[in-house]
Amino acid sequence: xxxxxxxxxxxxxxxxxxxxxxxxxxxxxxxxxxxxxxxxxxxxxxxxxxxxxxxxxxxxxxxxxxxxxxxxxxxxxxxxxxxxxxxxxxxxxxxxxxxxxxxxxxxxxxxxxxxxxxxxxxxxxxxxxxxxxxxxxxxxxxxxxxxxxxxxxxxxxxxxxxxxxxxxxxxxxxxxxxxxxxxxxxxxxxxxxxxxxxxxxxxxxxxxxxxxxxxxxxxxxxxxxxxxxxxxxxxxxxxxxxxxxxxxxxxxxxxxxxxxxxxxxxxxx
Length: 269
Prior knowledge:
Layout: H1 2-10, H2 32-37, E1 41-47, E2 51-56, E3 61-66, H3 75-78, H4 83-110, E4 117-121, E5 130-134, E6 140-144, E7 150-154, H5 159-168, H6 172-190, E8 195-196, E9 205-207, E10 212-214, E11 220-221, H7 228-250, H8 255-267
Parallel strand pairs: 1-5
Antiparallel strand pairs: 1-2, 2-3, 3-7, 4-7, 5-6, 8-11, 9-10
């Protein structure tokens, strides 16, 4: 058990069994750049609540593996004698699974540029290709594309890191430019009636020096029958609220600027 726990820690919880594709047929719809990028070896760079992330050799791309194991009923629950409790667990897992699948579909079909996405593969396909990765412990893996869930994105520097650096250097105009880029990205998504359930933002937005990108793609959804303008405003406010709270504590001098531009954005329907 000690050895197993040690390996788990060294690998930061990563295991190929945790990223196996969900049982849905998918067709590959990737351009030549994505196909070439996937031939590289990707090395572990970190993990979030939903995904393990690996960076490409050339530094241009990030390969993310969603944790599909969290949508599967654990073995111990499958043998529970209380059927209603087991059914409730399975229903909850299916609901979460459907949500994230829908979010990935929205990301690839409607927000591909805004999320810097190149390819998604969440179900199972007939691909003969293999992915080459190196985990946190330095172990090499060859993963069959056909049965592995992943998303491929352009690598973008973290937006809030760039913002904090601008503040530390006293570059007020650059900090304002970064906030404007974030608001523009949020508005672009919100104008399509797409909402974001994840309040976290410190690591969920990228910035290339001009444009912001929402690099977490697992929390998008729509509210059926909600009028577009209502959805747009809710989406914007839901995404900006945590930013306002953070600025109020960390950089209160920037809050009036954000608030003024937020209200102008909402009023400009």
